Amino acid sequence: SSELTQDPAVSVALGQTVRITCQGDSLRSYYASWYQQKPGQAPVLVIYGKNNRPSGIPDRFSGSSSGNTASLTITGAQAEDEADYYCNSRDSSGPHVVFGGGTKLTVL
Amino acid sequence: EVQLVESGGGLVQPGGSLRLSCAASGFTFSSYSMNWVRQAPGKGLEWVSYISSSSSTIYYADSVKGRFTISRDNAKNSLYLQMNSLRDEDTAVYYCARENSGSYSNWFDPWGQGTLVTVSS
Known about the structure:
The complex is a heterodimer.
Chain A: E1 5-6, E2 9-12, E3 18-23, E4 33-37, E5 44-47, E6 61-66, E7 69-74, E8 83-90, E9 97-99, E10 103-107
Parallel strand pairs in A: 2-10
Antiparallel strand pairs in A: 1-3, 3-7, 4-5, 4-8, 6-7, 8-9, 8-10
Chain B: E1 3-7, E2 10-12, E3 18-25, E4 34-39, E5 45-51, E6 58-60, E7 68-73, E8 78-83, E9 92-102, E10 105-111, E11 115-119
Parallel strand pairs in B: 2-11
Antiparallel strand pairs in B: 1-3, 3-8, 4-5, 4-9, 5-6, 7-8, 9-10, 9-11
């Protein structure tokens, strides 16, 4: 099966912009979706498809993709954005879907 | 309100069995594919299993193939995961998630709150 690779940890100063990346061969064929997970809570979808936000997700969250890399950008990070972020996509060489290992975002 | 509620988790000995349930409400359950995703303590998300809306297509992660069985009852708006031959490494919070799909993409939304399965002697 395919793999999706994420940086384990990223930090950003309050109000600044941060990009969280996800790399994998499957991303050449499929868009990634992105999930935010806060401690003790279930994951929440923040970006899906080419660059779509579910209802209720602030517009400071955006997504992009190039080659084998998908990115989640938070423009003007807020304290409440501190969380773990996971990407996932269809698995181009496996049974169904694959998740990245997750990125812990710290807002300084 | 679209909602998924898992139940059935608990403490089980290695080699034992457990059946998880996921009750869906607020949407037409029979129109959607569903998934189970798990998260071991302090670890990342791991996809476990998929079932299509009519149960005609089922997939499993290699780590659970032959031990876990996914099923659904559209009349009861419910999803299930029968887990047999449980191992220590199956200890995790298990989430059910609705699958949505579009052009060259699929995504999980919503997720349930999760149910904890602990495999230990």
